[in-house]
Amino acid sequence: MALWWTLFRDPSQSDEFSQAVENILGPATRGAFDEPGRPPFQLDESQRRLDMIRWAGLDDVSSEIITWTCQLTPVQARALYASMATVIRRPPDEQRTILDEVERIATTSDGFVRRRFVTALYTGRRP
Q1: pTM of the model
Q2: DSSP per-residue string spanning 6-31
Q3: Per-position pLDDT tens, the chain of length 127
């Protein structure tokens, strides 16, 4: 079994674009399952490995955290945020306002935004 999540931010290294977008979105940008004083849900390796052993009954559970950089044009940044639940669950007029602002901020960044993302990969096998 393989499970993976991608955080469209790097909690260990914030950037100006991410901070600006978080100011637009507000506190709803954080994960619903995040706990104070713990890593983001997806990056809480020891707990996710334990979950896979306890709840799925897997053996040889391992994890890997992959940090990578993505370059986005303003239109691509808009499309990325348009796919996120923190935007989708808002009324259409509010979505449009948020996405217009995301695209505007990305436009002021030399025509593209370079973002650090983090992917958490967990694997295990049935006994």
Answers
A1: 0.81
A2: EESS-TTS--HHHHHHHHHHGGGGS-
A3: 999 999 988 988 888 888 888 899 886 555 656 677 888 999 999 999 999 999 999 999 999 999 999 999 999 999 999 999 889 999 999 999 999 999 999 998 678 899 999 999 999 999 9
